[in-house]
# Entry
Amino acid sequence: TGKQQTTTERKEQPKQRTKHQEKQEPKPVITLPYIKGITEKIMTTMKKHNINTPTKPYTTVRKRLVHPEDKIPTGNKCGVIYEIPCKLCKETFIGETGRQLSTENTERMCRRHTRAVKQEADNTIKKSALTNPIMTGTTHGSELQKT
# Structure
């Protein structure tokens, strides 16, 4: 009976709201990764400025175990910038390719070590003052015999 009166009395009393509660602005929130020693100092500084700072784990089990994609091996990547040293000399090649890096790597060799340059050098006749007239078709046989 005594209990029933107090509960009914409470229901009849209107709740009083103060203007102070209505004007209260929400605290700004900054979520921080938890790093031992550092996060605590930041949290105390933020608390002085009335900023709420919840923390979250820096590394989680999910981040350590789950990888959405397998890593692509370096040789199979496309669209990369590369630096390849020549195996036969000290030159270094820097370039960009849209193809796989392994393809680019096998083709990339110092220009003076390629087969095409060696064949070009073999096919080029060394010209001198004596062989030049013979190659052009003008013969100076008499001059050659005199010397």
Summary: The radius of gyration is 42 Å. DSSP finds eight helices and four strands in the chain. Strands lie at 32-34, 55-57, 78-85, 92-100.
